[in-house]
Design goal:
Strand content of chain A: 25-35%
Largest interface: A-B, 95 and 99 residues
Strand content of chain B: 25-35%
Strand order of the largest sheet of chain B: 7-8-19-11-22-9
Structural class of chain B: alpha+beta
Order of helices and strands of chain B: EEEHEEEHEHEHEEEEEHHEEEEHEEEEEH
Number of strands of chain B: 22
Number of domains of chain A: 2
Order of helices and strands of chain A: EEHEEEHHEHEHEEEEEHHEEEEHEEEEEH
CATH topology of the largest domain in chain B: Double-stranded beta-helix
Number of helices of chain A: 9
Radius of gyration of chain B: 25 Å
Largest sheet of chain B: 6 strands, mixed
Shape of chain A: globular
Oligomer: heterodimer
Structural class of chain A: alpha+beta
CATH class of the largest domain in chain B: Alpha Beta
Number of strands of chain A: 21
CATH superfamily of the largest domain in chain B: Clavaminate synthase-like
CATH class of the largest domain in chain A: Alpha Beta
Helix content of chain B: 10-25%
CATH architecture of the largest domain in chain B: 4-Layer Sandwich
CATH superfamily of the largest domain in chain A: Clavaminate synthase-like
Number of domains of chain B: 2
Strand order of the largest sheet of chain A: 6-7-18-10-21-8
CATH architecture of the largest domain in chain A: 4-Layer Sandwich
Distance between the termini of chain A: 39 Å
Distance between the termini of chain B: 29 Å
Chain lengths: 369, 383
């Protein structure tokens, strides 16, 4: 079957027929697909193909006759060989010295728009961004404007402070080594995590953030065998909650690659890493790789260490950024943080919406905003 | 009590199973190495270059005691039951659950329609007949359900998922719908949320609040059963759907979200069995498919889609008002025949929790005696 060329990109006739934009093939207001090629007697064939006014018009060899009309911007947005797709996501990997002696820029949440803006550009680029002068109510309003809040076994606002006899290490005063929340021992989607500081009067308790992509790439360069092991070997992570009666357990590799072979996810939590089911002859190599990675998460050269003030808030992509804290002394004063999560999908979906709205809205018959 | 000098090997054998020294030291249960009330690991071996070595190992029937050659001295005590449950060669089932899935097709339900469980009899500890049915068949039919009682029940099992629709989704046909589910259209068998988003497999509750319209029969499909038959008859197509990530998307004008995800339709677990089926034709856009692969891919996709639509693979049933289907999204696909919105009201309420909360409750009861020794119950089989 000959492909159809438009603006230097190839489109297969079956793909075009499957993605026909007419209201018989696509539901007009939900834009979901109705056409079903699995009922067609044979592969779709174009009877005539022409490009006019930046639009591809295909008349199909069908009974009854069928015509598909594709605006060039819509086709361009879906070209299979769109190598720009990755480049549209600017990403700067960072380490401790990226911001020099300065604090990273901080945004006033009250002036930020859930649809996007500089805060969102920072978050996409660095995987992290900072806000100041935030209240819990303001955080709730803003996070909800980005997407639905994740409801967890702790509720949709998690208050983190030292408690006696707690079922979670985060609710002690202990040091927490850099980790990702909810995605190592659980199957939760990658999350946009907000941490708001409500009280910071204890001695200790500095915040630690690490760009997991930076250390994964560094490990890849320094020790390709260890890197490969952490990509290939599913490791057990677990959490036993006596109070809420859950025993979570997940087996997953620490490092995830995308279809291009680039690092696309880092999922790690030492305190949950237990009960690995490794054959004895794998143990040495896996522990060596694990310990090399773990040591990098603790290396100050990769850590952004900050002391949050009351009203400071940090937002980051869990699955790229690892977070932790130094230990603190609960006897010296209160330290209270609030965690709020939104599935990262919703943040991404807003970025996508803005990127592709011009290609979609005219097709749906909605004037671009 | 036998005493072994194990300093010369890298593993300790307990009842014929080898436990590696790195692994044992890393999993030490003492309160310095494992926080006593959260059970989270505190031990950190990442600054060690040499393998941990014991100075003495004692093993009686119930306990393995290791004195480590460290300064200061360190002792690890492992219950043998705990070791047995975590042995590398103690191959677990896909979930470790004592109930095995029973794969089904339309024939399974001829003359034996699914039992309806009164919600009042359903245990929020994820045990009992309703929960066993859900594990075995991927769904359970619940009866005597209202929106309020469903919300309470789901929330007791696990945190209710907030979606862009809110805490629950009320589906009825409406003009200008931004989702095909909110029309009278037929919906081919599909899984919700885990195709065009990265949400994990969900436990989905679908309550029929009203079902007075003509049409709108419910369709349930055991995706794992279909995928296994598909593999037997079309191994090449099966491999294509397992190995090729395709693209699902949803463009929402009202919320201004353009959700996209790439994933294979079929997911296979470490032991080779099908562990998940993620499919939604109305969201499938396949934008990253190279033209050279399109013929082979569409042949596989269309063949699988025909299996899902084949009535021989479907449980078709009309769900009565007040009844609710609980299903494991990722194994079960659901759909409906078209209905005529003018002929009467049809209102479906969807509530979701993460499937793993259900699984984690069951695992809690199987395993609690390994963590909270005073309580009864909990076996020590593979996990």
């Amino acid at each position: 079957m000959t492909s159809i060329m438009v603006d230097g990109h190839e489109y297969h006739p079956t793909w075009l027929r499957d993605n026909c934009l007419c209201t018989g093939c696509r539901h007009a207001t939900s834009f979901e697909k109705i056409v079903d090629l699995s009922t067609f007697p044979s592969s779709p064939r174009a009877r005539s193909v022409r490009i006019e006014n930046a639009t591809l018009v295909v008349d199909w060899d069908e009974q009854p006759e069928h015509r598909s009309v594709f605006p060039a911007p819509w086709l361009r947005a879906h070209a299979h060989d769109d190598t720009d797709r990755r480049r549209r996501r600017p990403q700067t990997l960072w380490a401790a010295n990226t911001w020099g002696q300065d604090e990273p820029p901080s945004h006033d949440m009250r002036r930020c728009d859930g649809m996007g803006g500089e805060w969102a550009d920072d978050l996409e680029r660095y995987g992290i961004c900072f806000f100041h002068s935030v209240t819990e109510a303001e955080l709730d309003r803003f996070a909800t404007s980005v997407g639905p809040l994740l409801n967890t076994e702790f509720g949709d606002h998690i208050v983190v402070r030292a408690e006696p006899d707690t079922s979670d290490l985060a609710l002690t005063a202990r040091h927490l080594s850099p980790h990702t929340d909810f995605s190592a021992h659980m199957h939760t989607a990658p999350l946009l995590q907000f941490i708001l500081c409500l009280q910071q009067r204890a001695t200790g308790g500095d915040s630690i953030q690490v760009d997991g992509f930076t250390i994964a790439n560094e490990l890849r360069r320094a020790s390709p065998e260890s890197f490969d092991l952490l990509v290939r070997t599913p490791l057990g992570f677990q959490q036993f909650y006596a109070n809420s009666r859950y025993f979570f357990r997940r087996t997953r590799p620490i490092i995830e690659l995308d279809r291009y072979g680039d690092v696309s996810g880092v999922f790690f939590a030492h305190s949950h890493a237990s009960g690995w089911r490794l054959a004895p002859d794998e143990v040495d190599a896996v522990y060596a790789a694990y310990n090399a990675f773990f040591a990098m998460t603790k290396d100050p050269a990769y850590q952004l260490r900050t002391r949050m003030k009351e009203g400071d808030c940090v937002a980051f992509r869990n699955g790229r950024i690892l977070h932790g804290r130094t230990g603190f002394d609960p006897g010296s004063g209160p330290r209270t943080l609030v965690d709020v999560f939104v599935p990262y999908d919703y943040f991404d979906a807003r970025r996508n919406y803005l990127r592709y709205a011009d290609a979609y809205l005219p097709v749906i018959g909605v004037p671009p905003a | 009590m036998p005493t072994t000098d194990a300093a010369t090997t890298d593993a300790i054998s307990v009842h014929g199973t080898e436990f590696h020294l790195w692994w044992l030291r890393d999993n030490c249960h003492c309160p310095e190495c494992r926080h006593p009330t959260s059970f989270q690991k505190l031990a950190d071996l990442s600054d060690r270059r040499a393998i941990p070595r014991p100075s003495q190992v004692r093993h009686n029937g119930d306990t393995l005691v290791i004195e480590w050659n460290e300064s200061p001295p360190h002792r690890s005590v492992f219950p043998v039951r705990w070791l047995a449950a975590h042995a590398a060669d103690n191959a677990p089932g896909p979930s470790g659950d004592e109930i095995s899935p029973v794969l089904w097709d339309a024939g399974t339900w001829v003359g034996s329609t699914p039992v309806a469980h009164d919600l009042l009899d359903c245990d929020i500890d994820a045990v009992g007949p309703w929960a066993d049915h859900l594990v075995r068949y991927g769904f359970a039919l619940l009866d005597n359900v209202t929106h309020e009682s469903l919300d309470r029940f789901a929330a007791a099992l696990g945190p209710v998922l907030n979606t862009e629709f809110g805490r629950s989704i009320t589906l009825r046909a409406k003009p200008g719908a931004t989702d095909l589910a909110e029309t009278g259209h037929a919906l081919s068998p599909h899984t919700d949320y885990s195709v065009h988003t990265h949400l994990p497999p969900l436990l989905q509750f679908m309550l029929f609040a009203e079902n007075g319209a003509t049409g709108g029969e419910s369709i349930l499909v055991d995706g794992i059963s279909v995928a296994e038959s598909f593999r037997a008859e079309h191994p090449d197509h099966f491999a294509m759907l397992r190995d090729t990530a395709v693209n699902f998307q949803q463009f929402y004008t009202n919320w201004r979200y353009f959700l996209q995800r790439s994933r294979p339709v079929l997911e296979v677990s470490g032991n080779g069995g099908v562990s998940g089926v993620f499919f939604a034709h109305s969201h499938a856009c396949n934008w990253a498919l190279a033209p050279a692969e399109a013929d082979a891919y569409y042949a596989a996709y269309n063949a699988f889609f025909r299996y899902l639509k084949d009535p021989a693979n479907q449980l078709r049933t009309r769900i009565e008002p007040g009844q609710c289907v609980a299903m494991r999204n990722g194994r079960l696909l659901h759909g409906r025949t078209a209905f005529d919105p003018a002929s009467g009201p049809r209102t479906v309420i969807d509530v979701f929790i993460g499937w793993e909360y259900f699984e984690a409750r069951r695992r809690f009861h199987r395993r609690r005696s390994l963590y909270v020794p005073d309580q009864d119950g909990g076996g020590a089989g593979p996990e």
